[in-house]
Design a protein that fits this description.
The chain is an alpha/beta fold. It has helices at about 5-35, 40-70, 75-85, 85-110, 115-130, 140-150, 155-165, 170-180, 180-195, 205-235, 240-255, 285-290, 305, 310-320, 330-340, 370-375, 415, 420-430, 505-520, 605-620, and strands at about 255-265, 275, 300, 320-325, 345-350, 380-385, 400-410, 470, 475-480, 485, 525-535, 540-550, 555-560, 565-570, 575-580, 580-585, 590-595. Helix content is about 50%, strand content about 15%. The longest helix has about 35 residues, at about 5-35. The termini are far apart. About 40% of the residues are buried.
Length: about 625
């Protein structure tokens, strides 16, 4: 069947579904709700009786046609039918409609070789899910899984089933039974809404019922996944949960990120391999998936985010994520990487270990050349550009941005073998080195471009005053000397007002601050009163207390009524921080988050001071 014919069929089905639903809304649902509001039970029953077979026919017809179209959500008619009809009737009508739609799709695909462009947009997600646990799965079981998973339209599942070799009898029975949990949930939501309209149900109870119904559907999904699908793919990137996570990420971020691949992976490169990438934004884990495509990869990620609550702990373990204690040696991470490589999966590592502060690449403090050599797999060096200004570390809002992924180099095990540790470490650092301000491909016409910038540019580059800078709309201002700089639509500073020096980029401004701090580093003594969160080895909160943090060129120390500790700065590789919130470190493998009680912009200064001390030690060691 030609594309033109397919599009005409889809358009006709969409129009039919919309017209039928509009008729149902105007002649049945809205009058019915009005009668319910007025407590006219007899009138409501008479309305449904008067519409008779016509009213009952509209529900399955709308359900059927919207399945063929795919992009019209089925929940509209399911909840509406729950509002209008008794629960058993609503359930039967919706199930009949789904079976009718499934049969139409089966006929279109099997007999007329129908091709749906709308299905193509869902096909990638279904194909990704289809790769997990394939040794023990039948088409029936897989379709049942899809029916109880959120975000996968019924129509897309039926298009998938029709494209396989499943017999119609098995296909239609699977559809009829598989959709029941979702239909029941939607119909019961409609029933609850009906009781709310009658004033027989308070709002809080209506919300509670909706939440509980959603939780029940999630519980059914969890049991089904664990029993039939997660055994073989458990703890790997082939887990259906992994595919679901990326589906949700795509729904949230696809419109905000225009992703392009300027230099991708060769088709000859087969997993396992290691991808090393620069770390521009929180979205990097999603961006790299565009590169690996149908070869899902395991990520080495901050153990705090993977274990911050029971759901994250469970999900990250199921999806094969590899936890890492930031800037702290532990055997869990290398063991997890070895295990994942042995299973044949790619592994993604961001060797900086933290997000870029100013758009330029952070120093790679964990030199891992010897470890990469032991893995005996190719090393892919990936550069991400364009992501930083879309969602920098210091800004809460996301701006739409163009992102480019470029494989700069692929090192084979033989090439790695003939490089010394120093040569390989230097090659990785040089290849991943990047400054976002040097390659700005997007135009950012949004306001508040400078809002939050003082959280990293905490010191005036002109007068040297501390904590006097402010990001106001698109202007960056020092309240001490009055210098004002405007960020233009390319995120470059315009000529400043007053006598300030012309500084072109955010990274250049940050380097100016660094130069000021370097002059004072030998005499530096930072002190902050903090509220401390102390986590145990399983990333569960062990205690909350108040204390004092101190940093000198020789020592980082923490004291509190409950005790404290000290770490020589020579053993402190870096001090990760969240802008305007906290800085953090490990002591005896336990994580501490420190929240200053005054001027939280100072966390950036603490982190920069530790970076300067580390850089000086490295230079002296050369």
């Amino acid at each position: 069947m030609s594309k033109k014919t397919s599009r005409i069929i889809i358009l006709l089905c969409a129009l039919t579904a919309l017209l039928l639903f509009a008729f149902f809304l105007k002649d049945i649902l809205i009058p019915f709700v009005r009668l319910e509001i007025n407590n006219d039970m007899d009138g409501a029953k008479e309305l449904l009786r008067s519409r008779g077979l016509l009213g009952c026919l509209i529900v399955p017809l709308v359900e059927a046609f919207q399945m063929v179209v795919i992009f019209i959500p089925a929940e509209f008619i399911q909840i509406s039918s729950g509002l209008s009809y008794p629960f058993p009737v609503a359930l039967l009508l919706c199930d009949i409609g789904v079976c009718l739609g499934a049969s139409i799709i089966f006929l279109l695909v099997r007999t007329l070789k129908f091709h749906s462009e709308a299905y193509d947009r869902q096909k990638e997600t279904i194909d990704t899910l289809a790769r997990s646990g394939k040794k023990h799965r039948s088409t029936v079981l897989f379709m049942l899984l899809l029916f109880i998973m959120p975000l996968i339209p019924f129509g897309a599942i039926c298009y998938y089933g029709s494209s396989t070799k499943i017999r119609y009898r098995h296909y239609i029975l699977t559809v009829a039974g598989g959709v029941i949990p979702s239909i029941v949930t939607s119909n019961l939501m409609g029933e609850a809404a009906k009781e709310f309209i009658r004033d027989a149900l308070p709002l809080w109870l209506l919300i509670l019922i909706i939440v509980l119904l959603g939780a029940a559907l999630f519980a059914v999904l969890t049991v089904f996944l664990n029993k039939f699908f997660l055994r073989e793919s458990d703890g790997t990137p082939d887990s259906p949960l992994y595919a679901l996570m990326y589906k949700i990420a795509a729904l949230l971020w696809k419109r905000k990120l225009d992703v392009r691949i300027s230099n991708g992976l060769s088709e000859e490169l087969q997993p396992p391999y290691i991808v090393l990438a620069n770390h521009q934004s929180f979205y990097d884990f999603y961006l790299v998936s565009f590169l690996t495509g149908d070869k899902p990869a395991a990520y080495v990620a901050n153990e705090y985010y993977l274990g911050m609550n029971p759901v994250c702990r469970w999900a990250s373990k199921k999806m094969g994520f590899i936890p890492k204690k930031l800037f702290t040696f532990d055997m869990v991470t290398p063991a997890g990487i070895f295990r994942t490589i042995k299973r044949g999966y790619p592994v993604i590592i961001f060797p900086e270990g933290r997000l870029s502060v100013d758009g330029s690449t952070n120093p790679i403090v964990d030199k891992s050349a010897a470890f990469y050599r032991k893995l005996s797999v190719p090393l892919v060096l990936l550069k991400i550009s364009g992501a930083y200004f879309g969602k920098p570390k210091w800004r809460k809002k996301t701006f739409r941005t163009s992102v480019t992924l470029s494989v700069e180099r692929v090192l084979t095990p033989d090439e790695i073998k003939y490089l010394s540790d120093d040569e390989l470490n230097a090659l990785i650092a040089d290849t991943l080195s990047f400054d976002a301000s040097d390659e700005i491909s997007s135009v950012y016409r949004r306001n508040n471009r400078a809002k939050g910038l003082e959280q990293i540019l905490y010191r005036c580059a002109d007068c040297g005053a501390l904590y006097t800078t402010r990001g106001v709309n698109n202007d960056f201002i020092c309240t001490a000397c009055g210098t004002k700089r405007r960020l233009n639509e390319r995120y470059l500073f315009e000529e400043p007002s007053g006598s300030g020096e012309h500084i072109r980029t955010i990274s250049e401004y940050y380097r100016k601050i660094k130069a000021l701090e370097e002059k004072e580093i030998d005499a530096i003594e930072l002190k902050a009163h903090v509220v401390t969160k102390h986590f145990d080895k399983n990333i569960r909160v062990k205690s909350r207390e108040k204390g004092i943090c101190t940093l000198t060129p020789e020592l980082f120390s923490y004291s509190s009524p409950g005790g404290g500790f000290s770490i020589p700065t020579e053993k402190l590789s870096a001090l990760p921080f969240s802008c305007g919130e906290e800085f953090e470190t490990y002591y005896e493998n336990e994580l501490y988050y420190f929240y200053p009680t005054e001027n939280r912009n100072q966390v950036a200064r603490w982190a920069l001071a530790v970076d300067i001390l580390k850089e000086r030690r490295d230079n002296e060691a050369r």
